[in-house]
């Protein structure tokens, strides 16, 4: 029925600083059950998440779209998030594949309009990163890229503690 499964998720939709990163993960249907990644929020440390992503990288491919804070300021969260999902999806180059696409959340990013590319089904599923390993893999890859970006920002602006709170508000 499906030759490929594509999962999409984003990180950086809620922080006060840093980029928003959307990742599309693509796996052949016969390898999907072998993925081990879970929702990025379920990992207690970065090393465990990195180990899972490294293992899954042998089974699937990752395609990312990174939106800078400046782009978010100019275009707003909703528009830039929509565009980032579209960009990551387009980078997955699914033309001719009978793909099942699962995006985290309940917002329609216009992906069903890609039917001419061979997409057989597009689903928007709240908490998809918890229920589908391919979306969990996308979630983890995006989170690792965000953590690296925030660590880099921390080098330039150490007094803000970006390496610790990753741009999210703290009490």
How does this structure look, described?
By secondary structure, this protein is an alpha/beta fold. It is built from six helices and five strands. The chain has helices spanning 46-56, 69-75, 77-91, 128-131, 133-156, 162-165; strands at residues 4-11, 20-28, 60-67, 99-104, 119-125. A five-stranded mixed beta sheet has the order 3-2-1-4-5. Strand 1 and strand 2 (20-28) form a beta hairpin. The mean pLDDT is 88.
Number of distinct beta strands: 5
- The order of strands across the largest sheet is 3-2-1-4-5
Distance between the termini: 49 Å
Beta content: 15-25%
Low-confidence stretches: none
List keywords for this structure.
171 residues, alpha/beta, five-stranded mixed β-sheet, 6 helices
Concise synopsis of the structure shown:
By secondary structure, this protein is of the alpha/beta class. The protein has helices at 46-56, 69-75, 77-91, 128-131, 133-156, 162-165; strands at 4-11, 20-28, 60-67, 99-104, 119-125.
Tell me the layout of helices and strands.
Elements: E1 4-11, E2 20-28, H1 46-56, E3 60-67, H2 69-75, H3 77-91, E4 99-104, E5 119-125, H4 128-131, H5 133-156, H6 162-165
Parallel strand pairs: 1-4, 4-5
Antiparallel strand pairs: 1-2, 2-3
Helix pairs in contact: 1-5, 2-3
């Amino acid at each position: 029925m499906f030759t490929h499964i594509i999962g999409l998720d984003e990180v950086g939709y809620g922080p006060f600083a840093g980029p928003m990163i959307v990742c599309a993960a693509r796996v052949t249907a016969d390898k999907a059950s072998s993925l081990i990644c879970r929702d990025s929020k379920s990992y207690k440390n970065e090393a465990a998440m990195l180990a899972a992503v490294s293992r899954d990288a042998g089974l699937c491919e990752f395609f990312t779209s990174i939106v800078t804070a400046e782009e978010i300021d100019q275009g707003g969260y909703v528009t830039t998030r929509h565009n980032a999902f579209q960009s990551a999806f387009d980078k997955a180059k699914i033309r001719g594949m009978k793909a099942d696409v699962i995006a985290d959340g309940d917002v329609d990013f216009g992906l069903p309009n890609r039917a001419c590319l061979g997409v057989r089904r597009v689903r928007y599923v709240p908490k998809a990163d918890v229920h589908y390993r391919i979306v969990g893999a996308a979630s983890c890859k995006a989170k690792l890229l965000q953590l690296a970006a925030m660590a880099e920002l921390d080098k330039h602006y150490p007094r803000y503690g970006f390496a610790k709170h990753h741009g999210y508000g703290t009490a």
